[in-house]
Amino acid sequence: MKSQDLLDQINAQINKCSGCRLCKVRIKAVPGEGPVGSLLAFVGEAPGANEDRSGTPFCGRAGDLLDRLLIMIGVKRSQIWVGNVLKCRPPENRGPMVDEVRACRTYLEKQLELIGPRLVIPLGKFATDHFIPEARISQVKGIPVRSGGFLIYPVYHPAAALRSSAVLAELEKDFKKIPAVLSADPHQFPIVGGSKISENQVSLF
Ligand code: URA
C-alpha cells in the first residue's frame, strides 16, 4: 500500500479512536493535515475548541498566526503537515494527562514515519518536551537537534506569541531561520538522547 494511503488509514483510525477518556468528550478528533513527503511537520499540544468543532488543526487565532509565519518564509499550509501530540481536545483546555499521551503516542510516531519530514517543529513547551524530554523550551527553542531519527527544531507556541510581543518577536526570529536549517547538512547538529519517538527511526541517521 502507498504511504499516503497508509497515512489516510491512520487518520481514519484516529477519527474513530476510543483509546482514552477524551473520545467521550470530543466533538471531532483532529488527526492532523498534510501530505506524505512534507518537508516540515509542525506539532502542537492538543486541539482547542475551534479544532474540536472543525476537525482541522490550528484553525483558530493561533492557526492564523501560524499561517502568517508560514507566508513570511514562503511556505503554504498545503505544503506542510500540521498536527498535535494529542488528537482530541482535553476538556476546558486542561493539559494532557500522561495516560492520554500514552494512548495517542503511536499515532504521531506512525504519522511522522510515513510523512518523513526533513524537519519536525514542536510548537511550545509541551510538544518540545514530548520530543526532547530533558529540554527546557527557553533553552532549546531556535536550536536544531537530532533526536529519535528526526531533526527537531523547537519554537514557541503561536498561542503564547499572541499573549506576548516579546515571545512573538522570538517566534518570528526562529521562523526566519527555518529555510537555512532545512538546507543545512543535518549531521552538523548535535544528537540528544531520550526521545519518545520510536527507536527504529534512529537508523535514519
Ligand atoms: N493549539 C494547539 O496546540 N493545537 C491546535 O491544533 C490548536 C491550538
UniProtKB/TrEMBL annotation:
This enzyme's EC code(s): 3.2.2.27
GO molecular function: 4 iron, 4 sulfur cluster binding; metal ion binding; uracil DNA N-glycosylase activity
Coiled coil residues, start to end: none
SMART domains in UniProt: UDG (SM00986), UreE_C (SM00987)
Keyword Protein transport: no
EC category name: hydrolase
Domain of life: Bacteria
Entry annotated with the keyword DNA damage: yes
Pfam families given in the database record: UDG
A single BP term in Gene Ontology: DNA repair
Reaction(s) this enzyme catalyzes, per UniProt: Hydrolyzes single-stranded DNA or mismatched double-stranded DNA and polynucleotides, releasing free uracil
Keyword line: 4Fe-4S, DNA damage, DNA repair, Hydrolase, Iron, Iron-sulfur, Metal-binding
Domain Uracil-DNA glycosylase-like as annotated: residue spans: 31-176
UniProt family annotation: Belongs to the uracil-DNA glycosylase (UDG) superfamily. Type 4 (UDGa) family.
PANTHER family: TYPE-4 URACIL-DNA GLYCOSYLASE, TYPE-5 URACIL-DNA GLYCOSYLASE
Record-given protein name: Type-4 uracil-DNA glycosylase
